[in-house]
Recover the amino acids of this structure.
């Protein structure tokens, strides 16, 4: 007979990519793990705000009957290798403590996240905080379909082929590297474009790349919008789910 001690009780943490919005783009594995996990920790941009990841997951795995930990992560820029904003550190620490309190009670916790967990997701800030405080935490990362893959597929376009070099850029940053990347690489994915749209249109016009660019807003969702002429989007309030694909080379002809 084995006696379960408090210290042997430990929950497992799952970081689950739920894809970019279309429920059919959630993987079987994501659905299985979310179905089996009673506690979900969900990211929101403000206190008691809605969670996009939760809304996506809920389309296939009903939230009802689950314990939902709503974790607020303010939308602030993170510059890796530089000192992190105190408000962010505080928010991540608070979120980590909340998740840890459930893991310590032997409960598994799933963290659904937009697209794939390994691409610009808060999941890894949360994980770093949890591992710092609770290094023994067992974690599984479940890959998801990225927004850039969904956007490229919707245009029947490859992201990269042959000797193409692909760059993925968080365009929310006013980054000197962007001009260089756009002039030197074959395909560039610009994410988080909604707040810098007009500046990006100016830059792409200056570099003569407008005809090589497509802008996809809310890919795979009922109100998806595609701008094959990005100049038509100038001045518009785009949804946060907006991505530009800049592809210079033709496939063959
Ligand atoms: C914080 S990043 C998350 C990326 C995500 N982890 C992934 O794997 O695609 C958010 C950005 O993803 C892109 N995005 C997410 N969902 C999208 C969608 N349905 N349509 C177009 N772009 C989307 C947008 O560029 C948005 O600003």
């Amino acid at each position: 007979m084995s006696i379960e001690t408090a210290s042997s009780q430990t929950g497992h943490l799952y970081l689950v990519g739920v894809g970019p919005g279309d429920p059919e783009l959630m993987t079987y594995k994501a659905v299985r793990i979310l179905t089996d996990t009673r506690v979900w920790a969900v990211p929101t941009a403000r206190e008691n705000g809605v969670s996009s990841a939760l809304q996506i997951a809920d389309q296939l795995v009903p939230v009802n009957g689950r314990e939902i930990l709503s974790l607020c992560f303010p939308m602030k820029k993170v510059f890796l290798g530089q000192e992190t904003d105190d408000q962010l550190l505080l928010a991540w620490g608070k979120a980590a403590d909340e998740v840890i309190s459930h893991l310590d009670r032997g409960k598994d916790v799933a963290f659904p996240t937009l697209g794939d967990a390994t691409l610009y997701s808060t999941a890894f800030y949360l994980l770093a905080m949890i591992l710092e405080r609770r290094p023994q935490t067992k974690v599984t990362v479940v890959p998801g379909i990225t927004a850039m893959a969904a956007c490229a597929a919707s245009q029947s376009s490859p992201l990269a082929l042959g000797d193409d070099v692909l760059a993925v850029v968080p365009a929310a940053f006013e980054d000197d590297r962007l001009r260089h990347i756009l002039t030197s690489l074959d395909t560039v994915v610009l994410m988080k474009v909604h707040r810098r749209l007009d500046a990006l249109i100016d830059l792409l016009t200056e570099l003569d790349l407008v005809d090589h660019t497509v802008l996809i807003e809310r890919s795979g969702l009922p109100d998806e919008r595609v701008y094959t002429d990005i100049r038509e989007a100038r001045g518009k309030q785009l949804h946060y789910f907006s991505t530009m694909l800049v592809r210079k080379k033709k496939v063959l002809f």
